[in-house]
Amino acid sequence: MIKYSFENDYSEGAHPRILEALAESNLKQRTGYGLDDECAEASEKIREIFGCPGAQVHFLVGGTQTNMTAIAAALRPHHAVIAAETGHINVHETGAIEATGHKVLTVRTEDGKLCPADIETVAALHTDEHMVQPRLVYISDSTEVGTIYHKKELKALSDACRRLGLLLFLDGARLGAAFACAENDLRPEDLPELCDMFYIGGTKNGALFGEALVLVNPALFEDFRWMIKQKGGMLAKGWLLGLQFKLLFTDGLYWELAAHAEKQAAEIRDGLKELGVEFRWDSPTNQLFPIFNEEQVEKLSENFRMTEMDCLDGNRRVVRLVTSWSTKPEAAEEFLRAVRNVTGY
Amino acid sequence: MIKYSFENDYSEGAHPRILEALAESNLKQRTGYGLDDECAEASEKIREIFGCPGAQVHFLVGGTQTNMTAIAAALRPHHAVIAAETGHINVHETGAIEATGHKVLTVRTEDGKLCPADIETVAALHTDEHMVQPRLVYISDSTEVGTIYHKKELKALSDACRRLGLLLFLDGARLGAAFACAENDLRPEDLPELCDMFYIGGTKNGALFGEALVLVNPALFEDFRWMIKQKGGMLAKGWLLGLQFKLLFTDGLYWELAAHAEKQAAEIRDGLKELGVEFRWDSPTNQLFPIFNEEQVEKLSENFRMTEMDCLDGNRRVVRLVTSWSTKPEAAEEFLRAVRNVTGY
Amino acid sequence: MIKYSFENDYSEGAHPRILEALAESNLKQRTGYGLDDECAEASEKIREIFGCPGAQVHFLVGGTQTNMTAIAAALRPHHAVIAAETGHINVHETGAIEATGHKVLTVRTEDGKLCPADIETVAALHTDEHMVQPRLVYISDSTEVGTIYHKKELKALSDACRRLGLLLFLDGARLGAAFACAENDLRPEDLPELCDMFYIGGTKNGALFGEALVLVNPALFEDFRWMIKQKGGMLAKGWLLGLQFKLLFTDGLYWELAAHAEKQAAEIRDGLKELGVEFRWDSPTNQLFPIFNEEQVEKLSENFRMTEMDCLDGNRRVVRLVTSWSTKPEAAEEFLRAVRNVTGY
Amino acid sequence: MIKYSFENDYSEGAHPRILEALAESNLKQRTGYGLDDECAEASEKIREIFGCPGAQVHFLVGGTQTNMTAIAAALRPHHAVIAAETGHINVHETGAIEATGHKVLTVRTEDGKLCPADIETVAALHTDEHMVQPRLVYISDSTEVGTIYHKKELKALSDACRRLGLLLFLDGARLGAAFACAENDLRPEDLPELCDMFYIGGTKNGALFGEALVLVNPALFEDFRWMIKQKGGMLAKGWLLGLQFKLLFTDGLYWELAAHAEKQAAEIRDGLKELGVEFRWDSPTNQLFPIFNEEQVEKLSENFRMTEMDCLDGNRRVVRLVTSWSTKPEAAEEFLRAVRNVTGY
């Protein structure tokens, strides 16, 4: 019997405060397509908290939609995107970027993060009209393998991008997780300073759905709503997105939910380390990648849902565990207890 | 002061029963991406009610997304779509179909509806490899100008499509409105019999959002979920869509909500006709297109939100009024009273 | 037995002078991809003759390729093209423009030509983000129905484009024919003054193949060669194009060939008019659209190849006859004689 | 002073026999767009020589155009291509494949060749709808690094493709070079047996331009001409392509020209090896990749044009030398003499 699913951080609905607010104003008539007061207020809150009074904020339903709309809007046909080989747009979006006509140039990394040398190498290889022209660098924070960018790293990457004439786009589907992490030294106001655009994930941090895309570089502003509509991302009842983000950025709910998820992850991480369990990637955030053997995975899977990521030599399996804003402390404890049982430590 | 908005049928949230069900199971952990029980149950209900046990049902968030995903999945690069000039995909989706690479071939119509002769003419003109190849016919019911297809008409169109090797796709964003209309003689089970695919609109009939796409022709089944993901339409918490459609098709809620909207529209339609107001299109559904003069529009707009559609000769304006599942009878009455005042009848 | 084909103006090879030049320098080693001396010299000649010293000139193989590359390079994804319904990009390029993601907004015309009111109407209808955004106006000179733009007309259209923020692109696949026509009052230097870009057709005026695209507006310059390569239009032995255009613009060969074609067309046009034959479009150029009855078409087709364009009431057929740089005077004479026979005049 | 360019195998025009035939029938009127007798005869010759009586043959102008048209025609939107990282479509076509919407999944290789294990690995990683679906394997023979497929290798790859449901497409831009090579054990008739489609390169083996695409798998036949036209590849005077291929496959001219190029390459290859020059790739065909030091490259470049490919440690440079159907024996000799001088051997 499955007691708890660590499959992802979007298995549950929304934080109850969101549902309450929704129910309260459900029958109010509102302007469609995100031109309502909720979206205006949510945008304003985000501009304040992230310290970018001149930015445009757009609310979209999901991550793939946000990535492909933002990237397609920023590029001319011959432009390409640079991403880590593990980048979400490269492996988990069914070629959505390519479907808008753009090549994703990939870089092999140890930890899912790009550094200046990576993009310099790619830029140096693409010199003439027989090759695509790199124009945008896509990163995620936290990354697909749970790691985060430290301020120094993001600054260096941002500097390299500006030097090379590349736009920098940060996918913050799990921005809460990154910022909640003990190691993190980035503050909200660093993002608009260092990136040309970024998005703040709601789906994976307590919203029913929704991502808030922040366009910082004014070169990206023109007609952006046309792009949203064309790519199928303009929600008729757009206020649903505004209302959720307004709440998430009221009284620090967004950060609080992320902190909760991180606390449960820390519990499991520390517990597993104590038991000597190895990790595939050293993630300080809410995605953990412990290594178990096949039998252990099988046993643990009787009660816990996890994702098998990879098979290593000698019968070892990398699994992914994700904690969320609604993971109960008991779930973490029970999981550790189960690991103790199956590992025999 | 605005007393009521007749701007569209998606100004409010969702039917309260939907919000209640949402709140009830909010914290239940569910499989992502529409592979959950809610979606399975909702699909099953739809297959039963529409009498198509072998159909595939997919839930998407919005109309443009549904149209472009369904059409792009069905076509090869040189294939084109035939649509009425007023068709939603032609005028109100920011070129979403063309953005997937396909031409929309348009037909001028009086009433927003296609007939066999229309598509025969288009087919006859596209004969060789220097021209696109018509492959799919897009219609909507009710149409963008409020009209509906009678069974005989849809049957004739369907026959012509099959004769010409064309797929038939029915956009049912306002299928409820069409079926609720007194003139309607189509039954749910007629759609899978006559169309290759169709969608049932939730956004405009009481859901927070959501459209249920029904693929009838097995040639359209293969890998459809790949297309949804690539086009950015795969909702992480897909169960939100399943849960809503399950409720809408429980105890006839979907038809009940549409009947309510139609009742309010009938009230206004009949009232206006009595007052001698003319209409641009003779719509039997929840979209009405009365003609007022400029001053009348201005006065009415002080208390009611409407959409200006067109300017006719002699200072006359076509406006659009839309009633919804939540339009109160008082709103219709008040509007008629206001018309009486401004027209001086 | 077919004595002569009036099917088009590209049934034969190239003017002999071109083949000679080709043979002469066939074994010379040259830089690839249009970066050779021939292309440089041809570009320089075109810039001089058309009076646009700052323009970029690019040589491409064919018309569809040129249209789609130029248009795709100029537009962002939500931008649309305005064209006459008869426009080549709308009917005879198998959706090549749409395949690059852009909608073609069409205007019904009497004579294949756009006027300011046409584009003002389209612009006025496209006002918000639910619709594509018109950005470029596509015209051809001579048009697909053989008509030409007078200077006053082109000036008015150009002014309207600038007022409305639209780019103007002139497809000169048959620019020679337009300029050779007695009515024409446009001079080469008018094109760069009035258009943002245009192309000079070689395929239909004595080259083996080739179109010279002239980018006038510097906003269109950036990375254009990337676009050519991506769209498959970068010819390895690009010098073949340069060499041909260099010759065509040496000693006025281009104008001379067009004048020859026009002379033959005039012969036929005048002869037919004398015989009382009606025309579907009143074309002053090398495409003629006489109307014959079915039996006449059948008889004439025994000896002459023509294209059937349309069926009119009462058994009447519109055919298209095209003369070329290599049409012999005898062919025109023989055709007229045959018409006299079949019509019995 | 540049004595000879080894920059590529398309620096010169065409074999004189081609120009003669062209001149001879230059003024003959022919049907446009490849529907002429020359194309029909050339197709027939190719079907005979390659032993595939049921195949479709299409003639296109260039390689990028052929690759993108063939691949786009074969795939649905979510399908991806597997290619070697060095594959022409991956690095040297400015993202033409992605511009048609498809991802290129790359495999690192030692020698530019794919083996069954490569494609099995890619297939195994792409399992669900969140990822693209590999559908076509792209290889080239000879490859971009001059290597060739032996029959056993191609057979094994073909078997793996069929097992995995993947189409196999062989880019034969340098098929002549591959077949002329001493090591080669593939015969023409092996290609249609092992591949679903392949193309025979003319541009790099004595034609002015042109590639002959052979569709073997009947699933790829439908409406292919529509795809050619849409992608801008339908040449008005298509007979130019047919005439060239007809001649190339008359009296074995195609093989003869390739043999000549290979003979010159062998001369240089053997000469350099004798001198102890190292090679980056061990190419048995007409592309050679010797390693010189910076000073040597500089000196040699005074008289010979070559392409710098890469910088290795310690001041070493990889250059590329290409011989062609028209490389004179003297050029090879002179080059070897120059190398002797600069290396001081």
UniProtKB/TrEMBL annotation, chains A, B, C, D:
GO molecular function terms noted in the UniProt entry: lyase activity
UniProt KW Cell membrane keyword: no
Swiss-Prot/TrEMBL cofactor(s): pyridoxal 5'-phosphate
GO biological process: amino acid metabolic process
Alphabetized InterPro entries for the sequence: ArAA_b-elim_lyase/Thr_aldolase, PyrdxlP-dep_Trfase, PyrdxlP-dep_Trfase_major, PyrdxlP-dep_Trfase_small
Keyword Ion transport: no
This protein's UniProt keywords: Pyridoxal phosphate
Descriptive protein name: L-threonine aldolase
Species per Swiss-Prot/TrEMBL record: Cuneatibacter caecimuris
